[in-house]
Specification:
Radius of gyration: 14 Å
Number of strands: 6
Shape: globular
Largest sheet: 6 strands, mixed
Number of helices: 3
Structural class: alpha+beta
InterPro entries: NTF2-like_dom_sf (IPR032710)
Protein name: Nuclear transport factor 2 family protein
Strand order of the largest sheet: 2-1-6-5-4-3
Distance between the termini: 27 Å
Helix content: 25-40%
């Protein structure tokens, strides 16, 4: 089970890094819940593959390039968490003052929950 979960997550991260939305959703179940959590607050939540795809397509416009690098794994039955180093180059100016071409670097954690061999939920925390 662990090896299967690891392959699915690695595929998801590779697809994310390559802006491949179809690759990102291929191992999600139809009702997957996605949450982005910053400083303890949920600032984005989607329910279902269609909402997830819409959000992922929208997010592509913000970056010229982006890369999540997995630095640690934690397996706990149906839940897997990964620590990530995140680096992206902005494609647009942001309201916080960052400009197109600036590099964004974060450390974060992504938590995945599995059900019947597919991803049931994803929480990205930074």
């Amino acid at each position: 089970m662990k090896e299967h979960q690891k392959k699915i997550i690695e595929s998801y991260v590779d697809s994310y890094n390559n802006f491949d939305i179809n690759g990102m959703v291929k191992n999600l179940n139809d009702n997957t819940v996605f949450e982005n959590i910053s400083n303890g607050n949920v600032d984005l939540r989607t329910e279902g593959i269609n909402e997830f795809k819409k959000q992922a397509k929208s997010a592509k416009q913000y970056f010229k390039e982006r890369k999540q690098t997995i630095t640690a794994w934690n397996f706990n039955n149906s839940k897997v968490s990964i620590n990530i180093d995140y680096k992206a180059v902005l494609a647009i100016d942001l309201p916080n003052g960052m400009k197109s071409g600036d590099t964004l670097e974060l450390k974060g954690k992504s938590e995945f929950e599995f059900e019947n061999g597919k991803i049931k939920s994803i929480s990205d925390k930074s």
